[in-house]
Every structure is written in structure tokens, then in C-alpha cells.
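Appendix C reproduces, verbatim, an entry submitted by the partner laboratory led by Prof. M.T., so that reviewers can inspect both the input and the predicted structure.
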Amino acid sequence: MVDIFDEVEEELRAERAQRLLLRYGGVIVGAVILVVAIAGGWQAWRWWQSKQDAAAAVSYVNAMAMADASTPTAIAARPATIGALDALASAAPEGYRTLARLRAAALKAETGDLPGALGLWDQVAADGSADPLLRDLATLNWAQHQIDHGDPAQIAPRLQALTQPNNPWRALAREQLALLDLRQGKTDAAKTAFRQLADDVTAPAGVRGRSSSLISKLGG
């Protein structure tokens, strides 16, 4: 009797399973296909992204080689190099995009296009997706190239934001602020700032050396 009941129960379970399969089989198959499609799409996207990164790396290295070269041919090709960097800045993956904008800005400043350079540095500084270190570097470059003629009311606050103790650009920012004071005739404030920089063992050697030299020129 026990065997008969077991057989009947197994047949009922099989029948229920068949009915469920008939009712939901399409949904199950669709779900499986969807999972496979998502996994395949993810792998395809990863492959495409790797290909884009590799292409951007090659383009960036080539552009940097031209930008850093000082031969007459490379100098004559500066506009084309800037164009290549601008193209990377608009279409390359995020990391290369930021680096390309920074290098293009430096080249534009070098070739006399200061407004174009300032615009690119501003773009990087305002880009929330860029590395904070590079954003602060863009701000520092933006300020450095306006120390002699820019509006102190705009320059000083942006430099001041870089002087926090944990900021790696703090010494350079303090140096620029001291130069801005000097330009505005605030000689005593500038001398105090230069003395502090000259005595700051955490500041780069170049900053300390320039500060000591300026203190001597300003009469101590």
C-alpha cells in the first residue's frame, strides 16, 4: 500500500510540474535568454571599452610625443598636435580626456592662446568626474597664468582653496598668493609669506629656493 501511495504522489507531482512548465515555460526560457543576453552584452561592452582605451592610449602617447618634441617639425606641427589633443579631450575615455585637456591647455598657453588655455583649465577644474588632484592642478595653472594681470578678487579665493594642509599643491598655491600680494603692493604680507615658505621643510626645494631669493631682493 505504501508503494502505491508513493507512486500516485510521484505521478501527481510530475503532472503538476508538467502543468507549471506548460504555463510558465515561455517565461522561464525568456528569463534564461535575457540573462545570457545581458552577460553577452556586458562582455561585448567590456571588449569595446578595452578597445577604446587602447586606441586612446596610442593616440595620447603619439600626441604627447609631438607635444614634448622641440624639433622644428614638431614646433611647426603644434596646431595639429593641439587639434589631436582637443579631439581626445572630447571623445576619449575619462582619464585620457582630462590629461588631454591639461596638455592642450599648456600648449595653447605656450603658443599664445591664453584665453583658450584658461578655458580648458576651467573645464578641468569644474569637472566633477575628473581626479581631484588634476582638478586642483588645473586651478593652480589657471591662477599662475593670471598672476600678473588677472583680477585678484577672482584669483585669490581659488588659490586659497588649495592651501589646505592635505593638499599636495599647497606650497605652490601659497607662493602664488604671495606673488599676488606683491603685485598689489602688499609687500609686508608678501615677505611674511615668503619667509614662511622658505622655512617650510615640507615645501618643494624649488619653492623654498625662490622664496629665499625673493626675500633677499625685497630687503629681508
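The chain has three domains: 1-45, 52-132, 146-220. Additional entries are available on request from the coordinating office.
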